[in-house]
Structures are given as C-alpha cells and as structure tokens.
C-alpha cells in the first residue's frame, strides 16, 4: 500500500522491554512504525526522514514496519515469505545482521551464524537458509551480466560469470530492474575488494543502488 513515507520523526522507542518503533508525522498524521533496534538507533527526533514501509494486515491489527533503506525493507518482505518466520523474527534477523550480511550468510548456508539471532534456533536457521537461498538465487533468473564495456584496468583479475549472475539474481529478487542491477554490478566490479567474490560484489552493488535512491 505504501512504498515509502517522508516526514518528521516525532518520537522513538528502543529498549529491551518493548519492540523498537518510532512515530513519523506526515501531513498531520502520525504513523507508528515498527522497526529494528538498528534502525531506531539511527533515526533522530525532530529530524526529517524517508522511510521504506511494509503494511502487515492481520485479522486483529494493521501494523506498519519501516526501514531507512529500500534493501532492508525488501529483504524483510522476502523473509516474511519463509514459513515459520513472522514479523518479530524478521525484525530480529535484520537487527542482528545488516541486509547485505544476512544475504551473505544465507548464500553461504551458514546456519550456525544465522542462529546467533535471538529466538532463531538451528532448525529454524536451516529452514530459513533452505527457503531463502532458493528465493534469492533461483527466483527471477535472467540474461547473463555483460561487463565487456568495463575496462580491464578497472577490474583487475577474472570475475567468474557465475558470481555475476548470482549477484544479479539477488538484486532482481529484491525488486530492482535488470537495467538497475547490471549498472550497479558494473560499478561494483570497479570497486569491490575481492573481484571474484559474489559477496563483495553484492555489497558494493547494494551500496551503489542505495546512493541512487
């Protein structure tokens, strides 16, 4: 229903007793937005903010969740499609890991690392990896990434085609267009520390896309 809301942060709550949340005022309406502790720590009262949101419709309530960047919101939405993962678990995961780190853990299949998050046991961690990895890599596969127009001086070393296609698949699953994904990947190939690492290329690509928002 809402992609994002721009407004002013009126108040926020971030403590160990209650879930993190803040009130965003826009056109004289105060929206109560549930979020991660990580996000709540970044927002400042009386400051303007652009919040990417997801509306959760339940039988007994309508809940608005929000994040300061599109990637976290989109990863939150994908997490919510995993059976056994509700709003609270998705928020806990994105509080423990940044969006890019969470994707890297899933792609590596490191369920022990994932189970660091409070309330996420080994069985649930393995289930999340099993379902989420498939959604991220195999959903919306498209044409191979072509970086032939990037000079060899800009990208020292050979980049495996498989790594590029994997990064593109993840970006497409997060809702970016093929054009946006390819442009970000080309830029990432110039700046990624490890040119042959899909995790490093993905991190740089997400950084490029977040700067364009």
Descriptive account of the structure:
With 213 residues, the chain is of the alpha+beta class. It folds into three domains: 4-67, Nucleic acid-binding proteins (OB fold (Dihydrolipoamide Acetyltransferase, E2P)); 70-138, DNA polymerase, domain 1, CATH 1.10.150.20; 161-212, Orthogonal Bundle (Helicase, Ruva Protein, domain 3). 46% of the residues lie in helices and 18% in strands. The chain contains nine helices and five strands. Strands 1-2-3-5-4 form a five-stranded mixed barrel. A hairpin with a 7-residue loop joins strand 1 (4-13) and strand 2 (21-26). The longest helix has 17 residues, at 122-138. The two termini are 19 Å apart.
Task: Report a brief summary of the structure.
By secondary structure, the chain is of the alpha+beta class. The protein is 46% helix and 18% strand.
Radius of gyration over all CA atoms, rounded: 18 Å
The count of DSSP E runs of length 2 or more, i.e. the number of strands, is: 5
Q: Supply the helix-strand structural class.
A: alpha+beta
Distance between the termini: 19 Å
Note the main attributes of this structure.
213 residues; DNA polymerase, domain 1; Helicase, Ruva Protein, domain 3; globular
Question: What's the arrangement of secondary structure elements?
Answer:
Layout: E1 4-13, E2 21-26, E3 29-34, H1 37-42, E4 48-57, E5 62-67, H2 70-79, H3 87-96, H4 99-108, H5 111-114, H6 122-138, H7 161-173, H8 178-191, H9 198-212
Parallel strand pairs: 3-5
Antiparallel strand pairs: 1-2, 1-4, 2-3, 4-5
Helix pairs in contact: 4-6, 4-9, 6-7, 7-8, 7-9, 8-9
């Amino acid at each position: 229903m809402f992609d994002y809301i721009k407004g002013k942060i009126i108040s926020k709550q971030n403590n160990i007793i209650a879930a993190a949340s803040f009130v965003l005022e826009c056109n004289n309406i105060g929206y109560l937005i549930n979020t991660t502790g990580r996000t709540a720590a970044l927002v400042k009262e009386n400051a303007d903010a652009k919040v990417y949101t997801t509306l959760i419709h339940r039988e007994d309530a309508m809940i608005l969740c929000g994040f300061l960047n599109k990637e976290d919101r989109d990863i939150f939405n994908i997490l919510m499609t995993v059976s056994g993962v509700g709003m609270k678990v998705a928020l806990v995961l994105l509080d423990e890991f940044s969006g890019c780190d969470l994707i890297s853990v899933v792609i590596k299949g490191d369920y022990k690392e994932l189970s660091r998050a409070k309330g996420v046991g080994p069985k649930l961690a393995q289930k999340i990896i099993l379902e989420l990895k498939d959604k991220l890599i195999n959903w919306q596969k498209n044409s191979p990434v072509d970086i032939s127009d990037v000079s060899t001086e800009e990208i020292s070393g050979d980049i495996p085609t498989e790594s590029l296609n994997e990064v593109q698949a993840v970006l497409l699953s997060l809702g970016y267009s093929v054009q946006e994904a390819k442009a970000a990947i080309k830029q990432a190939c110039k700046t990624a520390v490890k040119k042959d690492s899909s995790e490093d290329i993905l991190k740089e690509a997400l950084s490029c896309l977040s700067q364009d928002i």
